[in-house]
Amino acid sequence: MNSVQSNERTGDRSVAVVRVADTQWHAVENDRVVGRGDASHRPDGRLFVSVDAWHGPVFDRIAAALVADLPAPLYTVVDEADDESTTAWQRAGFAVGRREWGYLVPTDPEVTGLGPVRPPTGTTVVPAGAVEEAPLRALDRVVREEVEAGAGWRTMPAEVLPRPAWYTPADPSQYVAARESDRYVGLVRVAPLPRQPRIGLIAVRGDRQRRGVARALLAHVLGSLHDRGTASAWAEVDETNTAATALFGGIGARRAGATLELVRR
């Protein structure tokens, strides 16, 4: 959580920042906690920090303590519309590292134009609930190897991070897969969140891309959501991922905000 309210000044030198645990800091004024800082390692090894403080000067003091106590590089995430938080982190030496667009994705085939989409010849769609663990894990491993050899983990969502070779996707029931012969060549992960399903990942083997596999998978997922009465889903896409932005733009998805990843090196 990153929050700052700078219109009320609290610049009293009596505010002290204390490290209360390996990953936690408190800003204390007159024996009262007036702000908090936190740090956490993501699965890919990057160190993310956050600050919760109502006043700009308190935010600055906590951020300065984090920078002084922790090794660079440090990362944090803010809503692009939150100018105050972005400016506060910039005062601490952070700069924009990447932007991730949020998309509101319609499910109605009349809107998406995905109604008649069929998978390529020789490829079938395996629906959620029928996806098998072994071929899913094999495809997951291939995707990770291709990411590592190409764009790198920096541009990947949380579902695609370096993990041990024995790792199994947490819940195969949340995946829809594309099968070709005895192997999976593509997948979509959908998290069934209470308010709005989230499309967390779309991935296709490099040697099977540009054949319509991703569109066929997305058509199946969105069509199934529409049949259950869900009007839209949510998805996030790195702004540099031109294939994904073109895919969502081509089915009527609407940009509905953006998240900035800030870094201090």
Number of strands: 13
- For the record, what CATH class of the largest domain applies? Alpha Beta
- In total, the number of domains comes to 2
CATH architectural label of the largest domain: 3-Layer(aba) Sandwich
Task: Estimate what percentage of residues fall within beta strands.
Answer: 35-45%
Radius of gyration of CA atoms, rounded to a whole number: 22 Å
Q: Give a short account of the largest sheet.
A: 13 strands, mixed
- N-to-C series of helices and strands: EEEEEHEHEHEHEEEHEHE
Class based on secondary structure composition and strand pairing: alpha+beta
What's the number of helices? 6
Q: State the helical fraction.
A: 25-40%
CATH topology of the largest domain: Aminopeptidase
Cα shape? elongated
Report the CATH superfamily of the largest domain.
Gcn5-related N-acetyltransferase (GNAT)
Poorly predicted residue ranges: 4-11, 158-167
Give average pLDDT, whole number. 87
The span between the termini is 21 Å
Keywords: Acyltransferase, Transferase
Enzyme class: transferase
EC number: 2.3.-.-
Protein name: GNAT family N-acetyltransferase
